[in-house]
Amino acid sequence: VREVGNPTILATFTVIGALLPMGFVSGMMGPYMMPIPALGTAAMFISLFAAFVFTPWLAIHPVFRPSMHYLEKAEKREHAEADKLDGVFRRILSPMIADRRKARRFKIIMWSVFLLTCSLFYFKLVVVKMLPLDNKPEFSIVLDLPEGTALPETANRANQVANLIRKVPEVTAVQVYAGTAKPYDFKGMVRHYYLRNQPWQAEVQVELLDKGERDRSSHEIAVDARQQITELFKDLPLRFAVVEMPPGPPVLQSVVADVHGPDKKTRQIVAERLTKVFEQAPNLVDVDNYMRTPYDYWHFIVDREKSDRRGISVDSINKNLAMALGGMVLGDVKQKAGYEPVNIVIQVPLAERSQISRLSDILVQSGQGTSVPLRELGRFERMREHDIIYHKDLRPVEYVVADVGGRLAAPVYGMMQVEDLLKADADGRPFITPDNVHLAEETYWTGPPPTDIRSSLEWTGEWTVTYETFRDMGAAFGAALILIYILVVWEFGNFRVPALIMSPIPLTLLGIIPMHGIFFALGWGGEFTATSMIGWIALAGIIVRNSILLVDFAVHEIQAGATVEEAVIKSCKTRTRPILITAFALIFASSVIFFDPIFQGMAISLASGVLVSTLLTLIVIPLGCVQAAGSLCEV
């Protein structure tokens, strides 16, 4: 305990220093990530206490104390392993210590491989995504028929979808909501589906078997359902979306384009054309916009002079019309039990109320007790429904939305495909707005446009959450590195040695990025997500711990009179066994969440990063110690 106590305490605080900044990030994912550094910090303190108290006590307790015969065999086995390690490290390190050109060649190869590894992001062999979709027991299908469509037709289309989806073997139940919103859940709340109460709107709720009873994930079933519904409605003018439960923070849709412009007409033209561009992007599906298609409706205009003469108020006329059309609730059925009331609604039969001439025969009670036909109190007039006006931050906008699909099922790739189409479509022509603006040059990724005097486009949706999360996580990582550096400087009293100790941190990417690529290529997920970033940050503290153990032992050997070369080789020979045991313990602990939909990225980062960087640390740190021999002698 006395020998390894100080470096162990310092290594523990470096891990805590890597975790703590994550709790203070100000991005959208802050509340989601707060438990991770808190639990990690508590676990590190408890494990440190257990290592210094319970482990020594158990080692000498009669029940757990090993026999002398076992200790003698373990000593011989460990000495044999140490001799083998000594030969291995002398064959690897001695040539590079003796010949600096070989050491320089090793560094060039290592950093070239590092750059090649980072290029996997550029070549899209590793996909960056906020959070992967979880394997949920349900999803829904949202239908939008042309505005003005009658409720019976909407219900018929929704039932067609229900009958089609019911044939999927993993589906256990289907519920249709036509002309009304279903009891809203998380996705309904963030996407405002609880406001869907028009006759041309419907939603089909699909319930699935438990994930342990089916081979396909809910996302795979949803993709298959989208293909079947597309084939079913390929010749019909309606829009639909297969909506899965969002895995992270709420967004309006995966891909959202906010269209700004000088006036309403320009914005609507740009949004309509942009919708067609979205449909051409290979990785965008369920494309839609929030504009309302113009449609006519019948409006009853009250003749105030006639109604006042007969003593009939406008409110009375409205109530009679609402009652005839089924828009007035008279009360509810009194039940002993029930979660929702069963309303009592009176309405004229559909064959009668669908004819304006028959509605004019509705009798309205006058103040004198006589009944007056509705036609004598005014007239029905066909009118055009007004457009919906949307504002965001007090600025008028139009929304074009889409979901993501295909191999690169992350919003950023669909957005880049749209930008390529804005620069040049299939005929090589750029997207020019009615006010003569090249829209590709007026596209904003990290905030709204400065002005609305010309057309412009702002990317929001899941991209905003992704950008803010990775930005704040990067800031947290920088803060963690500074905190770790300060702790190591405080311990060693030197500014060069801490830089040497922290040098293996970037090498973790040599394992993290390729392993994500392997998982992605095999179809096992493997997107680089926010949890992957968390694993990388936490791994920084763990890798620094290994470096501290190596450098601390080398410093003690140098103080005892050994040369720097002998000190680093002896340090590697002595510390390799506990370092590898720690690495394999982390790998085995992470393996239980390798295929968890949400935390898979963290497991890949921890397991692959610690394996590759640990092996490289046993080479990089000794070579760095030889180059920083003067600084080590000063410690």
Radius of gyration, Cα only, in angstroms?
34 Å
What separation lies between the terminal Cα atoms? 21 Å
Unreliable segments of 5+ consecutive residues: 26-30
Count every beta strand, where a strand is a DSSP E run of 2 or more residues: 16
Strand content: 5-15%
Task: Using brief descriptors, characterize the structure shown.
635 residues, alpha+beta, six-stranded mixed β-sheet, four-stranded antiparallel β-sheet, 22 helices, elongated
Describe the model.
- With 635 residues, the protein is of the alpha+beta class.
- The chain has 22 helices and 16 strands.
- The strands form five sheets. Strands 5, 6, 13, 14, 15 and 16 form a six-stranded mixed beta sheet that branches. Strands 2-3-1-4 form a four-stranded antiparallel beta sheet, with helices on one face.
- Helix 19 packs antiparallel against helix 20.
- About 1% of the residues have low confidence.
